[in-house]
Write a structure and sequence with these properties.
The chain is built from nine helices and eleven strands. By secondary structure, the chain is of the alpha/beta class. Strands 3, 4, 5, 6, 9, 10 and 11 form a seven-stranded mixed beta sheet that branches. A two-stranded antiparallel sheet has the order 1-2.
Length: 285
Amino acid sequence: MLDTDQLRSFLAIIDTGSFTRAAERVNKTQSAISMHIRRLEEQLGVGLFVKQGRGMRLSASGEQLIAHARTMLQAEAAALAGIAGKGLTGRVRVGIPDDYAEPFLPAILSNYRARYPLVEIAVVCESSVLLSERVRARDLDLAVVTDCAIIPDVEIIREEPLVWITRAPMTFGPGSTVPLALGGPTCYWRQQTEAALARAGMAYRIVLVSNNYAAIAPIVDSGLAVTVLPLGAIRPGQRVLDENNGLPTLPRSRMGLIRAATNQTREALALADEIRAVVGMQKAA
């Protein structure tokens, strides 16, 4: 029989992309993770990983094992929940702004799913203010929000600089007009951006308005506009502009967690713990 603890280590490597992060997820040493993989390979009689340059990639046999491993762990979780009364099996509803979904949501969901494979997760991407209203109405169990100053009962879980973002190199001298792609007038980041430019006496024009970062990204990536994001939400290939590029310093951005006031389920409490762990993993200066 295959050892589910070893399979859990194997899937942790798949989900996190490295032996080091897999060890952190399953709370074992990296050497223990490596030993688990060696024992799986010995029992199966095949190699699960092959060398690729300085790193490793899955072998064909490793690819085949993924689905079997997930099925076995789900069966284990179902047995613990149904017979022993252990584990979580319900449903949790979480909200997160679109700007944070891409950089943080994959790790949050993959980590949570690895621990609680039987829980159904519903995700809603909307503005912080709307998410706050839905949590108060108990339409959501919890939400990650940005507008912490105007939303009550927020638990601050991350604080970092708000920065200017572009992909193409840009410099703004005296008399320059800054092209911007930002959220609507009620967006906290837009308000802080406009205030910083006003204090610096710099002109700007709004090229695109959208509360959905998926609409903003192509404009920024094409070099037609600049946007602002928290430092930890920068996407690969994007660059930060600062005073050396003629732009003023922006204030810090706070990321918070809000939860329904009463009757929090075990599923929601566990997801809140996972959000704290992932979001607070990188402490911004």
